[in-house]
Amino acid sequence: MIRTLIPLAAVAALLAACSGEPKPSGGEQAVVTATGALCRPTPVGRQMTGCYVTLTATADDRLVSVSTPAAGRVEIHESKIESNMMMMRELKEGLPLPAGQAVELKPGGNHIMLLAVAEPLADGQSIPLTLNFASAAAVTVQAAIGQPPVNEYGTQTGS
Ligand SMILES: [Cu+2]
Q1: Which residues sit with Cβ closer than 5 angstroms to ligand 1, an ion?
Q2: 73: CA distance to ligand 1 center in Å?
Q3: What is the DSSP letter of 29?
Q4: pLDDT in tens, 86-103
Q5: Are 95 and 46 in contact (CB under 8 A)?
Q6: How far apart are the CA of 76 and the centre of ligand 1, in A?
Q7: Residue 153's pLDDT is what?
Q8: How far is the CA of 104 from the centre of ligand 1 (A)?
Q9: At residue 23, does pLDDT exceed 50?
Q10: Taking the mean position of all CA atoms in its chain, how far away is CA 100?
């Protein structure tokens, strides 16, 4: 009779992998707080909209991605005025969060862009937004659906 013996050490390694490795120590672990999360209602016939939130990290960190079951894809955008046009561009490297500084995502500035929104978002609803950081643990906030105060350009940019 032939039996395959799995070395105990290999089994222990597998179990360790399943239970999750402890985070490497050394260096300050940032904690990020998120306040005032808000997403605009989706314009009629459009499947995209912008979300805003204020983030404060206890140590230097970076917002690297955002996810929500309400959208097929989420990008982190910056807004820039080029040739008198409001242009949006994806921040591929994410958004830096300097230690102790409140970083405001707001109309006319950096924002979270929801794309491929399956169900229209209407005033008064709310959706969960999960914010993923380079160092800090992910934070999930409940974002209200509503219009933000009119931005500094006096117009609704749709972003
Ligand atoms: Cu955008």
Answers
A1: 77, 88, 113, 159
A2: 12
A3: P
A4: 899 999 999 999 999 999
A5: no
A6: 7
A7: 52
A8: 15
A9: no
A10: 19
Q: Using pLDDT thresholds of 50, 70 and 90, give the confidence band for residue 7.
A: low
Q: Residue 14 has what pLDDT?
A: 53
CA distance linking residue 46 with residue 66, whole number of Å: 20
Ligand 1 centroid to 7 CA: how many Å? 53
pLDDT given for residue 82 in this prediction: 87
Spacing, Cα 25 to ligand 1 middle (Å): 36
Better-predicted residue by pLDDT, 75 or 149: 75
Tokens (6 digits) for 144:
């209200």
Which distant-in-sequence residues (6+ apart) come within 8 Å of 73 by Cβ? 114, 115, 116
**What integer is the mean pLDDT of 104-115?**
96
- How many of the other CB atoms lie within 10 Å of CB of 25? 6
CATH superfamily of the domain spanning 29-145: PCu(A)C copper chaperone (2.60.40.1890)
Alpha-carbon separation of residue 43 from 55, 99, 137, 144, 146 (angstroms): 26, 36, 33, 16, 12
